[in-house]
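For the sake of clarity, the format in which proteins appear in this thesis is described at this point. The record quoted next illustrates the convention:

___
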Amino acid sequence: MDEKNDRYLIEACIKKDLAAWSVLVKKYSALIYVSVENRLKKYGLDASSQDIEDIRQNILSDIWKNGKLSHITNRDDISYWIAILSGNAAMEHFRNREERQAQSAVSFSHKIDDKDLNEICPSGIPGPNDELARAETEERIDLAIESLPAREKIM
């Protein structure tokens, strides 16, 4: 297989040739990494090298699993296609991450069916109502103990 000619490499990868896939990964991994990194920097998004590596892995997995190489019309040189795909995937990754974070962030003042969220999903940390109830209970216990005869208070 001629490693310099993408056409043969892509044809072999479309046929799920693992040796060809290995060559493609080696040939384009650095380009994918740099394309992701550059696109994120362009839009002022911070990403660790591990984040970029995860995105790179997702891109390669998506290309393999979804047969994206079969949709390429100009198969002689796919470096431009890889760079664009990588930059778009990086932006999509961050868009999805922001959406997941926004969905998981819920205000404690949020109400569901006229109940406060902290009533539905208590955190385990005592709130003001819990503290007031505890103080009232302590006061009642102290008053009850005070009303006992002296001999019974010792026990």
Observations:
- Helices lie at 6-14, 18-42, 49-65, 79-104, 117-120, 128-146, 150-153.
